[in-house]
Amino acid sequence: MTPPQAKTWPPRGRTPVVRVRGRSRRRISIAALTCYRPGHRSRLIYRPRRDDGNRDGRKSFSWRDYRDLLTAAHQQLGGPIVLIWDNLNVHKATDLRKRAAARDWPTIYHLPPYAPDLNPVEGIWSLLRRGWLSNVAFSTPEHLIQRIRHGLRHIQYRSHLIDGRLAETGLIIRPA
């Protein structure tokens, strides 16, 4: 709920002031998959999660949330999935690894530690922060979620933006 800051061009001599009601300890987490397949449109699949304080004291995604996201992605994409994950501790959770090993459709690789420049989803977050979330004072968590969804939907329907995040990483897709 703490508003991100961005630069703006105000009239000379008038400093812009954005009033914020107060900091909030509420948290909104987002998990996303950028999906690439040669000869097809790139896709973005995401899930926001609001911390409601009712889930085992956990404020972010659990391994079960990632399991559900992967199952939904598998159903949407209709085929095997090759996951290239960063080294988030939940991505390496034992229960998630067991679930993935029990299925024949996911193949999981991990990025090297401290390599956000190789993760296309980091580029998606950058677009979102610099565009739809900058210079906005969010009044409620619902307002924040609405702006997040609006920005991600905008990115989702413009596959060239998703392709650009892959190009930034220097990784390429080779046809099978």
Q: What would your notes on this structure say?
A:
Helices cover 35% and strands 15% of the residues. It is of the alpha+beta class. It has a single domain, classed as Ribonuclease H-like superfamily/Ribonuclease H (Nucleotidyltransferase, domain 5, 2-Layer Sandwich). The termini are far apart. The mean pLDDT is 83. Residues 4-144 form the Tc1-like transposase DDE domain. InterPro entries: RNaseH_sf, Tc1-like_DDE_dom. It comes from Streptomyces glaucus.
Strand count, sense and barrel status of the largest sheet are: 2 strands, antiparallel
CATH topology: Nucleotidyltransferase, domain 5
Q: Uncertain runs with pLDDT below 50, 5 residues or more?
A: none
CATH classification, class level: Alpha Beta
Number of helices: 5
Q: How far apart, in Å, are the first and last alpha carbons?
A: 44 Å
Order of helices and strands: EEHEHEHHH
CATH superfamily: Ribonuclease H-like superfamily/Ribonuclease H
Shape, please?
globular
Structural class: alpha+beta
Strand content: 5-15%
Q: Over the alpha carbons, how many angstroms does the gyration radius reach?
A: 18 Å
Total domain modules: 1
Q: What's the number of extended β-strand segments?
A: 4
Record the strand order, biggest sheet. 1-2
Query: Which whole number gives the mean pLDDT?
Result: 83
Architecture (CATH level 2) name: 2-Layer Sandwich
